[in-house]
Design a protein that fits this description.
CATH superfamily of the largest domain: P-loop containing nucleotide triphosphate hydrolases
Oligomer: single chain
Largest sheet: 4 strands, parallel
Strand order of the largest sheet: 4-3-5-6
Number of helices: 11
Low-confidence stretches: 1-10
Structural class: alpha/beta
Strand content: 5-15%
Distance between the termini: 48 Å
Mean pLDDT: 88
CATH architecture of the largest domain: 3-Layer(aba) Sandwich
Radius of gyration: 20 Å
Number of domains: 2
CATH class of the largest domain: Alpha Beta
């Protein structure tokens, strides 16, 4: 069983954390219209909490109209208006680069934006993880290694090279793109920013930088819940991991800040505001 999540005075109640997570999954298309949710007991096991807590979370989602109770044991996603309705084509392709720490909600934001626009989502982990894991194993390292100098100095640069090539291939075809990745080194490197900005400008594309902030407690909740093997080392020494990063980092370039902390506005609401600003008169 997973260890109990940390609680602090004034932290968000667990039932609201569960509701927030499911709400975001619906907005991001991870949970689709008419999809049957796991049972109350299954959700309680996933969240290491009580059946009562899950029922309280479900009450919130039912009140919002996002979930419909078919019976005591069957709940169904109710989000017909969130089904994709076509691609937004622009005079100039738009590339939205989304950075943030582990567990900040980058991928969820990317999925929401991609569903709203119909643009391809180019997620670094999706396009590179199988190859990265195979390369690490060939080097006699754990496929989940993301901390060693071998990964950082040899493999990681190639991941971002592949990511950049995928972006340019899409933009070269006139497609906009949503690109979630940590970008921790890249967004702090003026030379890297200048290079990718110049290249995308040459391809007649606009570039938008987005940073997803998440407070340490909410980040811990997200990382634990997704249960990725590559996060095991961080979770084993969470305080040490926090000491190694700057939670309050901001890119030294004009950017949009998305606050995905538990106390912030819903991620989907901030995503809509971001798109309204990015698209402007190009829609």
């Amino acid at each position: 069983m997973s260890p109990s999540r940390p609680r602090t005075a004034g932290s968000e109640p667990v039932h609201r954390q569960v509701a927030r997570n499911i709400r975001t999954a619906i907005e991001a298309g991870v949970l689709r219209h008419k999809e049957v949710l796991p049972s109350t007991r299954e959700l309680a096991e996933q969240w290491s909490t009580s059946v009562f807590t899950i029922n309280e979370a479900m009450k919130l989602l039912v009140d919002e109209g996002l979930v419909v109770s078919k019976s005591r044991s069957k709940r169904v996603v109710n989000a017909p208006e969130r089904e994709p309705d076509g691609q937004v084509r622009l005079r100039k392709p738009q590339v939205i680069l989304i950075g943030g720490h582990v567990g900040s909600g980058k991928s969820e934001l990317g999925r929401i934006l991609a569903r709203e626009t119909g643009w391809p989502i180019i997620d670094k982990d999706t396009i590179t993880r199988p190859v990265v894991e195979a390369a690490l194993e060939m080097l006699h390292l754990s496929p989940n290694d993301r901390e060693s100098s071998t990964y950082r100095d040899i493999i990681r640069p190639r991941e971002y090279e592949a990511l950049r090539a995928a972006i340019e291939e899409n933009v070269g075809c006139g497609n906009s793109a949503v690109v979630p990745a940590p970008f921790l080194q890249e967004f702090n490197d003026p030379a890297w920013i200048s290079r990718i900005q110049a290249r995308l400008t040459d391809l007649n594309a606009k570039t938008t930088y987005v940073w997803v902030y998440c407070d340490a407690e909410t980040m811990h909740t997200y990382v634990r819940h997704r249960g990725a093997a590559r996060d095991a080392a961080k979770l084993a020494d969470w305080s040490g991991y926090l000491a190694s990063i700057d939670v309050d980092f901001r890119p030294p370039v004009p950017h949009f800040l998305i606050d995905n902390s538990a106390s912030s506005r819903p991620l989907q609401s901030q995503a809509k505001d971001l798109l309204a600003s990015v698209l402007g008169d190009d829609r």
